[in-house]
Amino acid sequence: MSPTPVADEISSSVRDLLEDAGALYERKKFDLKNVRARINIGSTDYLEVMLARPLTKIILREAPQLTLNFRPLIGQLPKDELERGELDIAIASYFEDIPLGHFQQKIMVDPFVLVMRKGHPLAKSKGDPTLDQMIEYPFSLISTRGDLVARFDSELAKKKKKARHIALAVPNAMSAFWAAADSDLLVISAQTFANSVAPTLGLVTKRLPVTLDSIQLMQVWHERTHKDPLRQWLRTEIHRVTSSLL
């Protein structure tokens, strides 16, 4: 006698429930205070600025023997590194097709804003700038993949506006912000990063005159660490921290 598809489905569900219960038990059993481990997180500098400080506070308080090791990602999902265990979690907004054997979780939706120095002519004017006003100034582009076309450029083309001048393209957000701090460069940035960094560098934000799709931040991990209680705990903390940022 062979089990029916329904029985197989029920069996699979029961097995998953038992695994979840076992993972919960293990999570309660292990002592965070005495766990000595290193967790490798692949991310961008934008995410490191937002996550490193609050996560470090949590680690020092709850898991003081744990080491968080942030490593840079360059434009794609680090599938091989996750499979080999070189990375435990990858966090970014540009992951496309997630392969089998991996899990993903949306941890934040982050809108775009326009960033400029306080003394910029557009900062001095009342209200938010128009497209025509924006494209009169040079831009600093954050491009992890090295391409010079972004979502904003597609919107310019749709509205039949002239192309903007990209004076600087860099793979990390901090460099773009530093360059704008004492020049007339404009930067289009994720809002949470701008809120974290702009005041320190003497930068201000304005609303964009076009609607751009918000950044969808995802954390991705391999199935080999899916039930690991320490990494489950950290993924939960990452989600909690990012949820509180907006």
From the N-terminal CA to the C-terminal CA, the straight-line distance is 56 Å
CATH superfamily of the largest domain: Periplasmic binding protein-like II
Instruction: Describe the strand arrangement of the main beta sheet, using strand numbers.
Output: 2-1-3-10-4
What is the total tally of β strands? 10
Task: Let me know the average pLDDT.
Answer: 88
CATH topology grouping of the largest domain: D-Maltodextrin-Binding Protein, domain 2
CATH class of the largest domain: Alpha Beta
Please summarize the sheet with the most strands: 5 strands, mixed
Parts with pLDDT < 50 across at least 5 consecutive residues? 1-25
**Alpha-beta content class:** alpha/beta
Q: Which of globular, elongated, flat, extended, rod-shaped describes the shape? A: elongated
Helix content: 40-55%
List the helices and strands in order.
HEHEHEEEHHEHEHEHEEH
How many separate structural domains?
2
Radius of gyration: 22 Å
Total helices: the number is 9
* Beta-strand content: 15-25%
CATH architectural type of the largest domain: 3-Layer(aba) Sandwich
Short structural description:
With 246 residues, the chain is an alpha/beta fold. It is 40% helix and 24% strand. The protein is built from nine helices and ten strands.
What does this protein structure show overall?
This protein is an alpha/beta fold and 246 residues long. The protein has two domains: 31-107 and 216-243, 3-Layer(aba) Sandwich (D-Maltodextrin-Binding Protein, domain 2), CATH 3.40.190; 112-206, Periplasmic binding protein-like II (D-Maltodextrin-Binding Protein, domain 2). It has helices spanning 5-29, 45-62, 79-84, 121-124, 131-134, 151-158, 173-180, 191-201, 229-243; strands at 37-43, 66-72, 89-92, 102-110, 112-117, 139-142, 166-170, 187-190, 203-206, 215-222. β6 (139-142), α6 and β7 form a beta-alpha-beta unit. α1 (5-29) crosses α9 (229-243), α2 crosses α9 (229-243) and α7 (173-180) crosses α8 (191-201). It is elongated and about 60 Å long.
